[in-house]
Design brief:
The protein is α+β, with helices and mostly antiparallel strands. It has helices at 8-16, 61-81, 114-117, 123-146, 211-217, 219-225, 229-242, 249-262, 270-300, and strands spanning 30-35, 40-44, 50-58, 88-95, 98-106, 151-153, 162-164, 179-181, 189-191, 194-195. The radius of gyration is 19 Å and the shape is globular.
C-alpha cells in the first residue's frame, strides 16, 4: 500500500494560510471532520479521501519526533493485541515557532462511523455493534493482563472511534460485524509500568491560567482511566448521551455488563452512567468555554492562537 501522507511543502503552504477560527476560509480551504481535546481532524481541499489530524502543541522537533515514534509503536501494539487499526502516517513540520504533527488516515464513509451508524441501525443491530466494540476492547485488556508491568496500552473506546467495515446503510450490519479502530492520536502506552506519553502535552492547549488546576484535578484521571476496562466501558455507554441516543443505553447496557462481569468487574448501572456523563459533560463544557476566553485574549494581545475550537456542542 502506497503512502497516504501529504508532502511537507504542501502542508507548510496550508499552515501559512490557515485560518484557525474559520478553516473553511483558509487560503487552502479545509472542512472540520471532528474535534478532539488537543487536535482537530480536517479534510483539506483537493484531498477529499483523507482525514488529516492536526496537532500543533509541540515546542521542539525532538518532542514531535518522540510523539511520532510513540504513535507508531502504539499502533503496532494495538495490532499485536488483535485490533484492526486504520493505516496511519505522520508528518511533522515547523511553523510559527512551534512544531506541528499531522496524522493521515483514510477517510471512512460518514455513515460507517459508529456515532453516525447508531442513528441508522435498529436497536437490535446497535446492540450487536456495541457487543463487537466491547469484544474488541476486551482484546486490549486481555493483552494488558498478560503483559502487566511489561507492556500495556490505554484505549478510548467511544463509539465514534470505530468504523464498520463494508457498512451499507440500506442493508444494515450484515451477518458479521467487522470494525476498524482509528483513534490513534493519544498513544497511551506503559513500558515497565511507566507512561510513555508526556502528560504535559495535554496541557499545551489549556489556558495558562488553568494549567495548574487541570494538572492537579484532572490529569491523573485522564492518564489512567483508559487503562481500566470498566471505566472505558462506562465512557462508551455515556457517549450515547452526547450522540443524542440515550434511549439506546438500556438496550446495550446488558450486553456491556455481560462482558465486564466475565472479567470479574462490577456491572454498570443506568444511574452510574448518567452521573458519569453529567460530570464529564460539565468538565468539557467549562473547559471549552475557558479555551474560548483564552483565544480571545490571544487575539486582543496580538498573539496567534494555533488551535481550532468547535462552536456550541450539543450535549
Amino acid at each position: 500500500m502506497g503512502s497516504i501522507a501529504l508532502p511537507v511543502e504542501f502542508l507548510k503552504e496550508f499552515e501559512a494560510g490557515l485560518n484557525p477560527r474559520f478553516p473553511e476560509r483558509s487560503a487552502i480551504p479545509a472542512r472540520v471532520l471532528g474535534y478532539g481535546e488537543i487536535g482537530t481532524t480536517l479534510e483539506i481541499a483537493g484531498h477529499d479521501g483523507l482525514a488529516c489530524k492536526r496537532f500543533p502543541m509541540f515546542y521542539s522537533e525532538e518532542e514531535a519526533i518522540n510523539y511520532q515514534a510513540l504513535h507508531d509503536a502504539y499502533i503496532k501494539i494495538l495490532r499485536e493485541a488483535g485490533l484492526n487499526v486504520a493505516q496511519s502516517e505522520t508528518v511533522r513540520l515547523e511553523h510559527g515557532g512551534r512544531w506541528i504533527v499531522y496524522i493521515f488516515q483514510e477517510k471512512f464513509p460518514a455513515e460507517s462511523i459508529g456515532h453516525r451508524a447508531i442513528h441508522i441501525l435498529a436497536p437490535g443491530e446497535t446492540r450487536r455493534l456495541v457487543a463487537q466494540v466491547v469484544a474488541e476492547l476486551r482484546k486490549i485488556f486481555t493483552f494488558n493482563r498478560l503483559h502487566r508491568g511489561e507492556r500495556e496500552v490505554g484505549i478510548d473506546g467511544q463509539i465514534s472511534n470505530w468504523a464498520i467495515v463494508g457498512f451499507d446503510a440500506r442493508s444494515g450490519l450484515g451477518p458479521e460485524v467487522k470494525l476498524v479502530y482509528f483513534d490513534t492520536s493519544t498513544p497511551l502506552m506503559r513500558l515497565g509500568g511507566r507512561e510513555q506519553l508526556d502528560p504535559e502535552l495535554f496541557l499545551r492547549s489549556a489556558p495558562s491560567f488553568l494549567v495548574w488546576l487541570i494538572r492537579w484535578l484532572f490529569l491523573p484521571d485522564v492518564m489512567t482511566r483508559y487503562y481500566d476496562f470498566r471505566q472505558v466501558a462506562m465512557d462508551l455507554l455515556a457517549n450515547f448521551y452526547k450522540e443524542q441516543r440515550p434511549d439506546l443505553i438500556p438496550v446495550v447496557l446488558e450486553v456491556v455488563n455481560e462482558m465486564i462481569v466475565e472479567e470479574g468487574l462490577r456491572p454498570l448501572s443506568l444511574e452510574e452512567v448518567r452521573g458519569y456523563y453529567r460530570q464529564d459533560a460539565w468538565i468539557w463544557r467549562t473547559y471549552l468555554a475557558f479555551r474560548k476566553v483564552d483565544r480571545a485574549l490571544h487575539h486582543i494581545t496580538g498573539r496567534p492562537y494555533p488551535y481550532i475550537l468547535p462552536g456550541v456542542i450539543k450535549r
